[in-house]
Amino acid sequence: MMLHTSPMETQRRASFEQHSQDVLNLLGAGHQLTRAEIASRLGVTRTTITPVLSQLHDEGAIVTVATQSGEGRGRRAAILAIDPTAVRHIGVDMSHTRVIVILANNAGTEIVSGMKEFQAGATWESRCTTAIKFIQTLVSSHELHLRQLSRIAIGLPGSASWHFGFSEENYPAVFPSRAELKAESRTQVMQDSANDTRLRVTQIFAEEFHVPVATAHHIRYAAIAEAANHPSAENLLYVRLSSGVGGAVIDCGKAVVGAAKLAGEIGHMCVDHSDNAPLCRCGKRGCLEAFISITALENSWRKAGHPKDTFADLCEAAHQDNPERRTNPGNSSRTSRLPDSNRRAQEIVVQAAKTLGRAIGCAAVVTDPDSIVISGEVGNLLLTQQEVIQTEVDKEILPVAQSRVCAASVGFKAGAVGAVIASMSEANTASTPSTPPNLINPRIYDT
Ligand SMILES: [Zn+2]
Protein backbone atom coordinates (compact mmCIF):
# COMPACT_ATOMS: atom_id res chain seq x y z
CA MET A 1 0.00 0.00 0.00
CA MET A 2 1.30 3.43 -0.92
CA LEU A 3 1.39 6.06 1.76
CA HIS A 4 0.70 9.62 0.69
CA THR A 5 1.43 12.73 2.69
CA SER A 6 -0.89 15.63 1.95
CA PRO A 7 0.56 19.13 1.47
CA MET A 8 -1.40 20.19 4.52
CA GLU A 9 0.20 17.44 6.59
CA THR A 10 3.68 18.44 5.32
CA GLN A 11 2.99 22.01 6.29
CA ARG A 12 1.73 20.95 9.74
CA ARG A 13 4.92 18.97 10.35
CA ALA A 14 7.15 21.86 9.24
CA SER A 15 5.30 24.20 11.55
CA PHE A 16 5.61 21.66 14.40
CA GLU A 17 9.38 21.41 13.81
CA GLN A 18 9.70 25.19 13.73
CA HIS A 19 7.83 25.51 17.03
CA SER A 20 10.05 22.81 18.58
CA GLN A 21 13.12 24.76 17.50
CA ASP A 22 11.67 28.03 18.82
CA VAL A 23 11.00 26.42 22.22
CA LEU A 24 14.56 25.03 22.34
CA ASN A 25 15.95 28.46 21.46
CA LEU A 26 13.82 30.18 24.08
CA LEU A 27 14.52 27.77 26.93
CA GLY A 28 18.08 27.25 25.67
CA ALA A 29 18.80 30.88 26.46
CA GLY A 30 18.42 29.91 30.12
CA HIS A 31 14.73 30.78 30.68
CA GLN A 32 12.49 28.72 32.94
CA LEU A 33 8.88 29.26 31.88
CA THR A 34 5.35 27.87 32.17
CA ARG A 35 3.43 26.63 29.13
CA ALA A 36 1.37 29.83 29.09
CA GLU A 37 4.51 31.98 29.23
CA ILE A 38 6.14 30.02 26.40
CA ALA A 39 3.00 30.37 24.23
CA SER A 40 2.86 34.08 24.95
CA ARG A 41 6.55 34.67 24.20
CA LEU A 42 6.29 32.77 20.92
CA GLY A 43 3.03 34.45 19.98
CA VAL A 44 1.08 31.20 19.55
CA THR A 45 -1.86 29.67 21.33
CA ARG A 46 -1.51 27.18 24.18
CA THR A 47 -3.35 24.63 22.05
CA THR A 48 -0.63 24.93 19.41
CA ILE A 49 2.30 24.72 21.81
CA THR A 50 1.04 21.98 24.16
CA PRO A 51 1.70 18.97 21.84
CA VAL A 52 5.11 20.45 20.94
CA LEU A 53 6.05 20.72 24.61
CA SER A 54 4.76 17.21 25.29
CA GLN A 55 6.92 15.76 22.54
CA LEU A 56 10.02 17.69 23.66
CA HIS A 57 9.34 16.47 27.20
CA ASP A 58 9.00 12.85 26.05
CA GLU A 59 12.20 13.12 23.99
CA GLY A 60 14.13 14.36 27.01
CA ALA A 61 14.86 17.80 25.56
CA ILE A 62 13.01 19.70 28.28
CA VAL A 63 12.11 18.93 31.87
CA THR A 64 9.83 20.24 34.61
CA VAL A 65 12.03 22.00 37.14
CA ALA A 66 9.36 23.29 39.53
CA THR A 67 5.69 24.17 39.82
CA GLN A 68 4.51 27.73 39.97
CA SER A 69 3.53 28.85 43.44
CA GLY A 70 0.19 30.68 43.35
CA GLU A 71 -2.57 31.71 45.62
CA GLY A 72 -5.38 30.20 43.57
CA ARG A 73 -6.77 26.73 44.22
CA GLY A 74 -6.32 25.62 40.61
CA ARG A 75 -3.70 23.22 39.33
CA ARG A 76 -0.22 24.70 39.70
CA ALA A 77 1.53 25.32 36.41
CA ALA A 78 4.69 23.36 35.64
CA ILE A 79 7.83 25.43 35.04
CA LEU A 80 9.80 24.06 32.11
CA ALA A 81 13.50 24.31 31.28
CA ILE A 82 16.08 22.67 29.05
CA ASP A 83 17.04 19.21 30.28
CA PRO A 84 20.53 19.75 31.74
CA THR A 85 21.52 16.21 30.79
CA ALA A 86 20.65 16.69 27.09
CA VAL A 87 23.84 17.14 25.08
CA ARG A 88 23.11 19.46 22.14
CA HIS A 89 26.59 20.34 20.86
CA ILE A 90 29.90 18.52 20.97
CA GLY A 91 33.07 20.56 20.55
CA VAL A 92 36.22 18.54 19.82
CA ASP A 93 39.82 19.71 19.55
CA MET A 94 42.08 16.98 18.14
CA SER A 95 45.82 17.48 17.93
CA HIS A 96 48.49 14.91 17.06
CA THR A 97 48.84 13.97 20.73
CA ARG A 98 45.46 14.39 22.48
CA VAL A 99 41.78 15.16 22.17
CA ILE A 100 39.82 17.70 24.24
CA VAL A 101 36.04 17.32 24.30
CA ILE A 102 33.29 19.63 25.55
CA LEU A 103 29.69 18.43 25.78
CA ALA A 104 27.38 21.45 25.84
CA ASN A 105 23.65 22.02 26.14
CA ASN A 106 21.43 24.05 23.84
CA ALA A 107 22.54 27.31 25.48
CA GLY A 108 26.16 26.44 24.75
CA THR A 109 26.83 25.93 28.45
CA GLU A 110 29.39 23.27 29.15
CA ILE A 111 27.87 20.20 30.82
CA VAL A 112 31.12 18.30 31.07
CA SER A 113 34.55 18.29 29.41
CA GLY A 114 37.70 16.23 29.44
CA MET A 115 41.01 15.42 27.77
CA LYS A 116 42.39 12.09 26.54
CA GLU A 117 45.92 11.42 25.28
CA PHE A 118 46.43 9.45 22.06
CA GLN A 119 48.89 6.59 21.86
CA ALA A 120 52.16 7.67 20.26
CA GLY A 121 52.06 7.30 16.49
CA ALA A 122 48.30 6.59 16.39
CA THR A 123 46.66 6.95 12.97
CA TRP A 124 43.79 9.39 12.44
CA GLU A 125 41.37 6.46 12.27
CA SER A 126 42.52 5.26 15.66
CA ARG A 127 42.48 8.81 17.10
CA CYS A 128 38.85 9.10 15.99
CA THR A 129 38.01 5.78 17.67
CA THR A 130 39.68 6.97 20.89
CA ALA A 131 37.83 10.30 20.76
CA ILE A 132 34.44 8.65 20.12
CA LYS A 133 34.91 6.15 22.96
CA PHE A 134 35.93 9.03 25.22
CA ILE A 135 32.76 10.98 24.33
CA GLN A 136 30.64 7.89 25.02
CA THR A 137 32.35 7.40 28.38
CA LEU A 138 31.72 11.03 29.35
CA VAL A 139 28.06 10.67 28.38
CA SER A 140 27.47 7.45 30.32
CA SER A 141 29.53 8.32 33.41
CA HIS A 142 27.68 11.64 33.82
CA GLU A 143 24.28 10.12 33.02
CA LEU A 144 23.75 12.37 29.99
CA HIS A 145 22.02 11.55 26.72
CA LEU A 146 22.62 12.33 23.03
CA ARG A 147 19.00 12.09 21.83
CA GLN A 148 18.95 15.87 21.32
CA LEU A 149 22.41 16.12 19.75
CA SER A 150 22.37 18.78 17.03
CA ARG A 151 25.91 19.00 15.67
CA ILE A 152 29.57 18.19 16.22
CA ALA A 153 32.42 20.56 15.36
CA ILE A 154 35.96 19.25 15.29
CA GLY A 155 39.12 21.36 15.37
CA LEU A 156 42.09 19.75 13.62
CA PRO A 157 45.72 20.80 13.04
CA GLY A 158 46.19 23.35 10.24
CA SER A 159 47.09 22.70 6.62
CA ALA A 160 50.75 23.65 7.07
CA SER A 161 51.35 20.79 9.48
CA TRP A 162 49.44 18.33 7.28
CA HIS A 163 51.81 19.04 4.47
CA PHE A 164 54.60 16.85 5.74
CA GLY A 165 52.45 14.47 7.75
CA PHE A 166 54.59 15.14 10.82
CA SER A 167 53.42 16.11 14.24
CA GLU A 168 54.21 19.52 15.62
CA GLU A 169 56.48 17.74 18.09
CA ASN A 170 58.27 15.77 15.40
CA TYR A 171 59.75 18.04 12.78
CA PRO A 172 61.31 16.41 9.74
CA ALA A 173 65.09 16.37 9.66
CA VAL A 174 65.17 16.80 5.87
CA PHE A 175 62.92 19.34 4.23
CA PRO A 176 61.68 19.24 0.68
CA SER A 177 63.07 22.27 -1.12
CA ARG A 178 61.00 24.66 -3.18
CA ALA A 179 62.61 23.18 -6.29
CA GLU A 180 61.60 19.67 -5.27
CA LEU A 181 58.08 20.71 -4.53
CA LYS A 182 56.86 23.31 -6.97
CA ALA A 183 54.41 25.84 -5.70
CA GLU A 184 51.43 24.34 -7.56
CA SER A 185 52.01 20.77 -6.42
CA ARG A 186 52.92 21.98 -2.93
CA THR A 187 49.48 23.49 -2.53
CA GLN A 188 47.82 20.48 -4.12
CA VAL A 189 49.65 17.90 -1.98
CA MET A 190 48.84 19.88 1.13
CA GLN A 191 45.20 20.36 0.20
CA ASP A 192 44.71 16.72 -0.79
CA SER A 193 46.29 15.40 2.38
CA ALA A 194 44.37 17.80 4.60
CA ASN A 195 41.10 17.31 2.75
CA ASP A 196 41.35 13.50 2.77
CA THR A 197 41.94 13.39 6.49
CA ARG A 198 39.30 15.99 7.28
CA LEU A 199 36.81 14.14 5.14
CA ARG A 200 37.58 10.81 6.82
CA VAL A 201 37.34 12.32 10.32
CA THR A 202 34.01 13.93 9.39
CA GLN A 203 32.75 10.63 7.98
CA ILE A 204 33.72 8.56 11.03
CA PHE A 205 31.99 10.94 13.46
CA ALA A 206 28.91 11.36 11.24
CA GLU A 207 28.49 7.58 10.93
CA GLU A 208 28.74 7.19 14.68
CA PHE A 209 26.51 10.04 15.84
CA HIS A 210 24.19 10.61 12.81
CA VAL A 211 24.41 14.43 12.99
CA PRO A 212 26.13 17.02 10.78
CA VAL A 213 29.86 17.25 11.50
CA ALA A 214 32.04 20.28 10.71
CA THR A 215 35.82 20.49 10.84
CA ALA A 216 38.18 23.48 10.85
CA HIS A 217 41.69 24.51 11.86
CA HIS A 218 41.78 24.20 15.67
CA ILE A 219 43.68 27.48 16.02
CA ARG A 220 40.79 29.23 14.25
CA TYR A 221 38.37 27.69 16.74
CA ALA A 222 40.62 28.85 19.62
CA ALA A 223 40.60 32.36 18.14
CA ILE A 224 36.79 32.29 17.89
CA ALA A 225 36.68 31.36 21.60
CA GLU A 226 38.97 34.28 22.46
CA ALA A 227 36.83 36.66 20.42
CA ALA A 228 33.71 35.44 22.27
CA ASN A 229 35.52 36.09 25.54
CA HIS A 230 36.42 39.66 24.46
CA PRO A 231 32.92 40.93 23.61
CA SER A 232 34.33 44.31 22.58
CA ALA A 233 36.89 42.72 20.24
CA GLU A 234 35.19 41.54 17.07
CA ASN A 235 38.41 41.91 15.11
CA LEU A 236 41.23 39.96 16.54
CA LEU A 237 44.65 38.64 15.64
CA TYR A 238 45.37 35.41 17.49
CA VAL A 239 48.89 33.99 17.75
CA ARG A 240 49.89 30.71 19.37
CA LEU A 241 53.59 30.25 20.02
CA SER A 242 54.67 26.77 21.03
CA SER A 243 56.57 23.99 19.22
CA GLY A 244 55.17 25.69 16.12
CA VAL A 245 53.84 29.19 15.57
CA GLY A 246 50.25 29.43 14.34
CA GLY A 247 47.66 32.13 14.12
CA ALA A 248 44.21 33.18 13.02
CA VAL A 249 42.51 36.38 11.95
CA ILE A 250 39.00 37.05 13.27
CA ASP A 251 37.07 39.59 11.25
CA CYS A 252 33.68 40.66 12.66
CA GLY A 253 33.59 37.52 14.80
CA LYS A 254 34.35 35.14 11.88
CA ALA A 255 37.65 33.44 11.10
CA VAL A 256 39.30 34.40 7.81
CA VAL A 257 40.07 31.16 5.92
CA GLY A 258 41.74 32.11 2.62
CA ALA A 259 41.97 30.51 -0.81
CA ALA A 260 44.13 27.55 0.29
CA LYS A 261 42.83 27.63 3.88
CA LEU A 262 46.16 29.19 4.91
CA ALA A 263 45.05 32.59 6.21
CA GLY A 264 46.58 33.54 9.54
CA GLU A 265 49.73 31.40 9.20
CA ILE A 266 51.73 34.12 10.88
CA GLY A 267 54.51 31.68 11.83
CA HIS A 268 55.52 31.63 8.17
CA MET A 269 55.94 35.37 7.71
CA CYS A 270 59.52 36.04 6.63
CA VAL A 271 61.47 37.98 9.26
CA ASP A 272 64.97 37.39 7.88
CA HIS A 273 65.49 37.82 4.13
CA SER A 274 69.22 36.91 4.03
CA ASP A 275 70.38 33.93 1.94
CA ASN A 276 71.61 32.02 4.99
CA ALA A 277 68.51 32.61 7.09
CA PRO A 278 67.42 29.46 8.95
CA LEU A 279 65.34 26.98 7.03
CA CYS A 280 61.75 26.55 8.18
CA ARG A 281 59.82 23.25 8.08
CA CYS A 282 57.51 24.82 5.46
CA GLY A 283 60.42 24.89 3.00
CA LYS A 284 61.05 28.66 3.15
CA ARG A 285 63.90 30.46 4.86
CA GLY A 286 63.72 33.05 7.61
CA CYS A 287 60.17 32.34 8.83
CA LEU A 288 59.10 33.74 12.20
CA GLU A 289 58.65 30.16 13.44
CA ALA A 290 62.34 29.43 12.79
CA PHE A 291 63.19 32.19 15.31
CA ILE A 292 60.65 31.95 18.09
CA SER A 293 59.41 28.38 18.37
CA ILE A 294 60.35 26.37 21.49
CA THR A 295 63.15 24.64 19.53
CA ALA A 296 64.45 27.92 18.12
CA LEU A 297 64.64 29.59 21.54
CA GLU A 298 66.14 26.49 23.09
CA ASN A 299 68.86 26.54 20.41
CA SER A 300 69.58 30.23 21.08
CA TRP A 301 69.90 29.49 24.78
CA ARG A 302 72.22 26.53 24.16
CA LYS A 303 74.40 28.64 21.88
CA ALA A 304 74.59 31.23 24.67
CA GLY A 305 76.56 28.73 26.79
CA HIS A 306 73.99 26.26 28.15
CA PRO A 307 74.44 23.28 25.83
CA LYS A 308 72.35 20.82 27.86
CA ASP A 309 69.56 23.15 28.94
CA THR A 310 65.96 22.94 27.80
CA PHE A 311 63.29 25.56 27.06
CA ALA A 312 62.11 25.20 30.68
CA ASP A 313 65.62 26.16 31.90
CA LEU A 314 65.55 29.23 29.67
CA CYS A 315 62.15 30.24 31.13
CA GLU A 316 63.48 29.81 34.64
CA ALA A 317 66.66 31.79 33.97
CA ALA A 318 64.66 34.58 32.31
CA HIS A 319 62.40 34.80 35.36
CA GLN A 320 65.12 34.84 37.97
CA ASP A 321 65.12 38.54 38.66
CA ASN A 322 61.57 38.07 39.90
CA PRO A 323 61.77 38.15 43.75
CA GLU A 324 58.79 35.78 44.08
CA ARG A 325 60.62 33.12 42.15
CA ARG A 326 63.87 33.71 43.98
CA THR A 327 62.21 33.00 47.32
CA ASN A 328 60.43 29.91 46.02
CA PRO A 329 62.20 26.97 47.73
CA GLY A 330 61.43 24.76 44.73
CA ASN A 331 63.85 26.84 42.67
CA SER A 332 66.72 26.79 45.19
CA SER A 333 68.97 24.66 42.98
CA ARG A 334 68.72 27.28 40.23
CA THR A 335 69.31 30.40 42.28
CA SER A 336 73.06 29.76 42.15
CA ARG A 337 73.04 30.68 38.45
CA LEU A 338 75.32 33.53 37.57
CA PRO A 339 73.59 36.88 37.06
CA ASP A 340 75.21 36.85 33.62
CA SER A 341 73.18 33.83 32.72
CA ASN A 342 69.95 35.57 33.75
CA ARG A 343 70.92 38.59 31.72
CA ARG A 344 71.60 36.42 28.66
CA ALA A 345 68.26 34.69 29.07
CA GLN A 346 66.49 38.02 29.26
CA GLU A 347 68.34 39.29 26.19
CA ILE A 348 67.08 36.27 24.25
CA VAL A 349 63.53 36.92 25.43
CA VAL A 350 63.69 40.65 24.60
CA GLN A 351 65.10 39.89 21.14
CA ALA A 352 62.35 37.30 20.52
CA ALA A 353 59.70 39.75 21.79
CA LYS A 354 60.96 42.38 19.30
CA THR A 355 60.93 39.86 16.45
CA LEU A 356 57.38 38.83 17.35
CA GLY A 357 56.25 42.45 17.76
CA ARG A 358 57.50 43.43 14.31
CA ALA A 359 55.83 40.45 12.62
CA ILE A 360 52.46 40.86 14.32
CA GLY A 361 52.71 44.62 13.80
CA CYS A 362 52.95 44.02 10.04
CA ALA A 363 50.00 41.63 10.22
CA ALA A 364 48.07 44.23 12.24
CA VAL A 365 48.60 46.88 9.54
CA VAL A 366 46.70 44.63 7.15
CA THR A 367 44.06 43.19 9.49
CA ASP A 368 43.45 46.15 11.88
CA PRO A 369 42.56 44.07 14.96
CA ASP A 370 41.14 45.48 18.22
CA SER A 371 43.35 43.04 20.12
CA ILE A 372 46.34 40.86 19.40
CA VAL A 373 45.92 37.81 21.61
CA ILE A 374 49.05 35.81 22.41
CA SER A 375 49.01 32.23 23.72
CA GLY A 376 51.21 29.15 24.10
CA GLU A 377 54.28 28.42 26.22
CA VAL A 378 56.54 30.72 24.20
CA GLY A 379 53.79 33.34 24.16
CA ASN A 380 53.68 33.30 27.97
CA LEU A 381 57.45 33.72 28.15
CA LEU A 382 57.49 36.60 25.66
CA LEU A 383 54.58 38.32 27.39
CA THR A 384 56.97 39.01 30.29
CA GLN A 385 58.18 41.65 27.78
CA GLN A 386 54.67 42.78 26.78
CA GLU A 387 55.70 46.46 26.53
CA VAL A 388 58.50 45.53 24.13
CA ILE A 389 56.03 43.67 21.91
CA GLN A 390 53.50 46.55 22.10
CA THR A 391 56.20 49.14 21.25
CA GLU A 392 57.17 47.20 18.11
CA VAL A 393 53.51 46.79 17.13
CA ASP A 394 52.92 50.53 17.62
CA LYS A 395 55.85 51.33 15.30
CA GLU A 396 54.15 49.34 12.52
CA ILE A 397 50.45 50.18 12.80
CA LEU A 398 48.93 53.47 11.66
CA PRO A 399 48.98 56.18 14.33
CA VAL A 400 45.18 56.24 14.40
CA ALA A 401 44.97 52.46 14.88
CA GLN A 402 44.83 50.75 18.26
CA SER A 403 45.79 47.10 18.46
CA ARG A 404 46.31 46.05 22.05
CA VAL A 405 48.66 43.16 22.78
CA CYS A 406 47.25 40.89 25.48
CA ALA A 407 47.45 37.36 26.86
CA ALA A 408 44.94 34.68 25.87
CA SER A 409 42.22 34.25 28.47
CA VAL A 410 40.35 31.07 27.61
CA GLY A 411 42.99 28.47 28.47
CA PHE A 412 43.81 25.05 27.08
CA LYS A 413 40.19 24.23 26.17
CA ALA A 414 39.98 27.21 23.76
CA GLY A 415 39.90 25.02 20.61
CA ALA A 416 36.99 22.92 21.91
CA VAL A 417 35.16 26.02 23.23
CA GLY A 418 35.44 27.61 19.78
CA ALA A 419 34.18 24.39 18.20
CA VAL A 420 31.03 24.54 20.37
CA ILE A 421 30.50 28.19 19.41
CA ALA A 422 30.92 27.28 15.73
CA SER A 423 28.52 24.36 16.12
CA MET A 424 25.92 26.64 17.72
CA SER A 425 26.41 29.24 15.04
CA GLU A 426 26.07 26.70 12.22
CA ALA A 427 23.04 25.03 13.71
CA ASN A 428 21.62 28.48 14.28
CA THR A 429 19.92 27.00 17.30
CA ALA A 430 20.80 29.83 19.59
CA SER A 431 20.47 32.45 16.83
CA THR A 432 23.54 34.43 17.90
CA PRO A 433 23.07 34.83 21.65
CA SER A 434 23.40 38.39 22.91
CA THR A 435 25.92 37.22 25.49
CA PRO A 436 28.70 34.77 24.65
CA PRO A 437 27.98 31.19 25.67
CA ASN A 438 28.97 30.54 29.22
CA LEU A 439 31.78 28.11 28.48
CA ILE A 440 34.57 30.14 29.92
CA ASN A 441 33.27 29.85 33.48
CA PRO A 442 30.93 26.93 33.07
CA ARG A 443 27.87 26.52 35.23
CA ILE A 444 27.09 22.88 35.54
CA TYR A 445 23.47 21.82 35.88
CA ASP A 446 22.28 25.34 36.50
CA THR A 447 18.61 24.48 36.99
ZN1 LIG B 1 57.83 28.60 7.36
What would the keywords be for this entry?
5-stranded mixed beta sheet, disordered C terminus, single chain, alpha/beta, Nucleotidyltransferase, domain 5, ATPase_NBD, 15 helices, 3 domains, Arc Repressor Mutant, subunit A, binds zinc ion, 13 strands, elongated, 447 residues
Summarize the structure.
The protein has 447 residues and is α/β, with parallel strands linked by helices. Strands 6-5-4-7-8 form a five-stranded mixed sheet.
How would you sum up this structure, described in words?
With 447 residues, the chain is an alpha/beta fold. The protein has 3 domains: 14-69 and 76-82, Orthogonal Bundle (Arc Repressor Mutant, subunit A); 89-230 and 412-427, ATPase, nucleotide binding domain (Nucleotidyltransferase, domain 5); 254-407, ATPase, nucleotide binding domain (Nucleotidyltransferase, domain 5, 2-Layer Sandwich). It is 43% helix and 15% strand. The strands form 3 sheets. A 5-stranded mixed β-sheet has the order 6-5-4-7-8. The longest helix has 29 residues, at 339-367. Bound molecules: zinc ion. Residues 268, 280, 282, 284, 287, 289 line the site of zinc ion (ZN).
Helix content: 40-55%
H/I helix tally: 15
Unique bound compounds? zinc ion
Percent of residues in beta strands: 15-25%
Q: Say which CATH homologous superfamily of the largest domain is assigned.
A: ATPase, nucleotide binding domain
> What best-fitting shape do the alpha-carbon axes yield?
elongated
Region (Disordered): 320-344, 428-447
Organism: Mobiluncus porci
GO molecular function, one term: DNA binding
Biased composition (Polar residues): 328-339
